[in-house]
Amino acid sequence: MASGCKLFVGGLSWNTTDDSLRNAFEAFGEVTDAKVITDYETGRSRGFGFVTYASPDQASTARSEMNDRELEGRVIRVDAASEGGGGAVAVVDTVAAAAVAVVEVATAAAATAVVVATAVVATTAPAAVVTAGKPLPRR
Q1: Of 36, 56, 67, 127, which one is least surrounded by beta carbons within 10 A?
Q2: Is residue 93 scored above 70 in pLDDT?
Q3: What is the pTM of this model?
C-alpha cells in the first residue's frame, strides 16, 4: 500500500457496517479496504473506522469531499490515518509498561518491607522469628 492511501473516519453511527462504509467512499475511487472498528467483547462499533484507497490522489479527494459530511445521520470526520497505525496497540503497550513498572516498584517495596520487618523482629525478639514455619535457632 502506498503512503497516504489510508483514511481515518471518526464519528460513525453505531449502525455503520464495513459494507456501508465502503459504499459511501467508493464514489471517490477504488476502495481496497473498509473497516469499522468494533469492541472485542461486545462486537459493537466503536464509532470509527478506516478506508484504504488504491492511490493517494483518490484518498485525498475522498478526504476533502467526505470530511464534515453526514453519513447515516452523523457528521463524520475524515483525516489521513497515522503512519504505523497501532493507536490501540500503543495504548495497550503503554498501559502494560506502566503495569510492569508498578509491579517492579511494588516488588522492590515488598522486598524492602520484608527485610526491614525481619530486621526489626530479629533485633527485638529473636526467638519469635519464624522462617518457612520453623523457628530460627537462638544465638
Answers
A1: 127
A2: no
A3: 0.59
